[in-house]
Amino acid sequence: MNQLRPPESGYQSRVRANVIRLFRWCGAWAATCALLALGPKFLWNRSLVFTLLAIGLNICVGIGAIVANKKYLEELDDLQRKVHLNSLAITVGVAIIAGFPYSVMDSYHVIPFHADISHLMVLMSLTYGASNLYGTRRYR
Amino acid sequence: MKNRLKVLRAERDWTQAQLADALDVSRQTVNAIETGKFDPSLSLAFRAARLFGLRIEEIFRDEDGP
Questions:
Q1: Which chain B residues are closer than 8 Å to A5 by Cβ?
Q2: What would the pLDDT profile of A56-111 be if each residue is shown by its tens digit?
Q3: Is the model's pLDDT at A16 over the cut of 80?
Q4: Would you call B48 an interface residue with chain A, using a CB distance cutoff of 8 Å?
Q5: Which of A34, A106, A138, B49 is close enough to A115 for a disulfide, judged by CB 3.0 to 4.6 Å?
Q6: How far apart are CA A68 and CA B14, in angstroms?
Q7: What are the tens digits of pLDDT across the range B5-61?
Q8: What is the ipTM score, two decimals?
Q9: How far are the Cα atoms of A20, A100, B58 from residue B53, in angstroms, in the given order?
Q10: Which of A10, A78, A138 shows the shortest C-beta gap to B40?
């Protein structure tokens, strides 16, 4: 049997490290979102300076999460990248197709509640997760 | 696109996981290529050719070609 010598840093360990990095950045971003949502009311009594600082922190950590996600996607192999690309395409499509009529429905009071951006984020998360799961199973 | 990846791997008694490590991809990718569900990129095809010591066209073949 010919012996194979795997690369110094294996694909799986590289992906695992990138997933952990991405998870940490996303966790930090979620924490800054919570700080931004709750801080003005419960922590600093609506002080404009602290609110602006919280917004700045939220944006900076968000940029870190974007960079971590980009690195994660870049270091995936061909197939995994294709699966993620398909998922992203479906997610962006669903967000645009669903987002506009949802906003119009709110404007003309077709729905009895306010069309919040968080609804769209939940829809995008679910769409991305479902399409990623489908793609992963398809090539199994 | 057809390929001889599975045959070449079996000749060397390698597992999909070992081949995946050597090609620096996931085992799922090796499986998808072997079963014809996914066509590899040119750089991955070159890596496979280098690993097996063959030319690309000796591993991968266009189904519509001659």
A1: 22
A2: 999 999 999 999 999 999 999 999 999 999 999 999 999 999 999 999 999 998 99
A3: yes
A4: no
A5: A106
A6: 34
A7: 999 999 999 999 999 999 999 999 999 999 999 999 999 999 999 999 999 999 999
A8: 0.85
A9: 36, 55, 10
A10: A78
* Cα angle for residues A106, A97, A32 (degrees, 5° grid): 70
Q: Cβ contact (<8 Å) for B41 and A139? A: no
Is the minimum CB–CB distance between B38 and chain A shorter than 8 Å?
A: yes
- The single-letter code of the amino acid at A113 is F
Whether residue A1 has pLDDT greater than 60 = no
- Give the one of B21, B41, B44 whose C-beta lies nearest to A10's C-beta: B21
**A3 touching B (Cβ < 8 Å):** no
The model's pTM is: 0.83
Instruction: Please name the residue that has the structure tokens 């012996």.
Output: A3
How close does chain A come to B32, measured CA to CA in Å? Answer: 6
* Backbone angles phi and psi of B3, in degrees to 5: -150, 160
- Count Cα neighbours of A71 within 13 Å in the Cβ-side half-sphere: 17
Q: For residue B25, which residues of chain A lie inside 8 Å, CB to CB?
A: 11, 77-79
A78 to B44: CB separation less than 8 angstroms, yes or no: yes
CB B17 within 8 A of CB A6: no
Angle of helix B27-34 relative to helix A78-107, nearest 10 degrees, comes to 100
